[in-house]
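Subject: mismatched residue count in predicted assembly?

I count 796 residues in my input, but I want to confirm that the predicted structure covers every chain. Input:
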Amino acid sequence: MTRARTLALFLPLLLVGCTGKKNTPPSVSADSVRANDSAVAAPAAVPVERVLSYEERQGSVLYMKYCAVCHGKEGKGDGFNAFNLDPRPRDFSDSAYMAALSDAQILQTISGGGRSVNKSPLMPSYGGTIDNRQARYVAAYVRAFSTGQ
Amino acid sequence: MKPLRLTFAIVAVLFLVVLAVSPLKDYLREWKHDQTEYNRLVAGLPQRVKQVDIGIRQVWVRKLDRVDRCVTCHLGVKEPALHAAPEPFTTHPQVYHDVDDLGCTFCHEGQGSATEYRESIGKVKYWDRPILPRAYLEASCAKCHREKDVPQAPILNLGRKLIRESNCVGCHKLEGGEKQWIPSLDGIGEKVNRTWLVNWLKHPRTYAPSTRMPNFLLTDEEAGTLADFLLSFKTFPEEAALEPEPSQLTSAGADQKSKLVELGATRFREARCISCHPINGKGGYVAPELGKIASKVSAQWLYNYIKRPKRLQPGVVMPRYRFKEEDLVGVVAYMESEFVDYDVEQLPPHTPDPGFYEKGRALFKKYSCGGCHALSGMGRAEETGPELTKIGAKRLYEIDFGRSGIEQTLPVYLKTKLLTPHVFGESMKMPQFGFREDEAEAIAVALLGKTDDNIPPDLIVPDAPSGTFAPQGDFGKLVDDLACLGCHVMNGRGRLVATDLSLEASQARRAWIEGYFKVPYSLRPVLTERMPKLYLSDAEIKTLVDYMEMAFISDSLDHTVSTDPAAAAIGRGLYYERYGCQSCHQVGAKGGYVGPPLDKAGTRLTAGWIFHWLKNPQRLKPGTIEPNNNLSDAEADALTAYLLTLK
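Triage response: the counts match. Full output below for your records.
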């Protein structure tokens, strides 16, 4: 009897010890942090709803500088210079085509130019102008035109 | 005896339980759970990723005196295979800095020694440096990067640019924002009319949407008094006197006048005033809006100003056009007839109150107008606002959030203060700048970077010292008179709106430069800023080009190529077939127009420039988008030979 009473006394204590820690899954109190994230100003008008990743945002700056003149600000292959080119620049929002393209192929085209992948030499090579890291940023952003919905 | 035994039993059990709670608590630690999750996650991956031993992990950055335990849970930061893994295991984005090198909290802030989510990332009472929201993260780049253009930090760069352009240093002590040139107010009484000035003081952006003048939210009475005060200043700097208005402007018949206006319209177009000045929002961005200028300034002032801009406004970057008298009168007549604000309602005639001068002077001081504008007799108001050199380290308890009701964090406070300064109290003197939301955020980013962290000197990336180039003699006088440095850079000084001229004589041929001064044309059809026609005399052109050939030249860019047609033919092949140069450059009206047309490359450019440009364009013009194709010398020679045949 005594033993039962003492046990009953300590059970709640034990429970408190167990539950105190469990309720902090990372995503719960992250709301305040994430709420500010959505305020990140994407420098470009990409038709995506989601927030761009760090790589994509870095890529967007480079893309606007080097690529948008031909490939267009929205990646549709309709930059102001596109109409002087034959074949026309690639439309990056073509998700069927882009899905079949590996990251390595995109990177190769950026750094080696169209001629390095047996495509039009009108796409210049930027391997000597931007470094590998920057090329990967651009590649990530180029992907965002077709993947973000 | 029995109660004692019972007590003993209870104490014994209690002791046991307490002993058990401690290891249990330890066993149930959040990070242990995360590490177990991580090991389970990587075990399921197709790639081989090493599992971790359960235990606290930390990065010790000795040079910054920081210990960050974030990696206890953020286990995948250096593991590329986990780029799609959920937080907290995902790969860190690729930045130039390594987590072992700088740690975590140096950039992200937050409590590095904590091992629990709430304590490290959440809001912790009395922890002054909470985690930086991602939108403001670039603030941390500013701790070390003092250069103007920080690679990979576009928001910070924008913020710093806005701080410079808005002339924050007029009122605040702040490093890295050199004082901008702002018009002096001496002689304003002879320049503008009262209606314009009152409206301007109340709503600057109604007149000029792109102006940097902020809105001080003055009352009608304040604006009127301040206007009366300012209009009493009728003497120009160094007591320059206005020449009388030419008789054609005042007494011409209707027929004569329309001819004059027509002539003026032609000259206005030729001189390309809109390269720098916007007209109703369209055109350049370098100079003030002209769309309603006739309703602002008097015709007499306009005539005198265009004739000799620096006499009335020392330091202004407006070039002195070499107009003939008749042309000048025409331009003024044209502007007077064309750029009128028909919507403005003229204020009734007004006699200033007796005490207007003293009251106006007090307002001028109260709103710190002298922080930006010079006005003789008022002295220079220096730094009347709070010092901002360490604003990023401001503690929350030091901030008066008033009744604003905003989220109580430093980034949000700064952003709100920039957008709507008056929500923190009616009596705030900070004017409203009319920033967009993203602009306010960018400025907040630049300000947040001004912390009191002790940065080791070897980590600091300093800003390039600004050039001190000050040409002397006749060339120097011309450069000053034509305000060349308002758009061009020479040896590190000037504003890069147009090209850097520091190597001009190595780049372009003498005959071409001379011709360009006479009839400037736009090398790149897509550019909006175009070289104005300054109507220079032959002697002036000779002075300019002679100096360039002496000073803006480098022997290291000399190069000769063979004039063999065979080499040119190879070059032609490279141009069209291999490197696809026609995608950006036009030859014979075919090709793109990203770069300049190359039709007359042979008459415009030197062999040495073409060769060295092709070898490494960014060496000659940092930031150009012309790709470096890593050409061999032979290829560059052949291409140069080809381009020189285009005449």
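Chain A touches chain B through 53 residues (CB under 8 Å). Marking this ticket as 'not a bug'.
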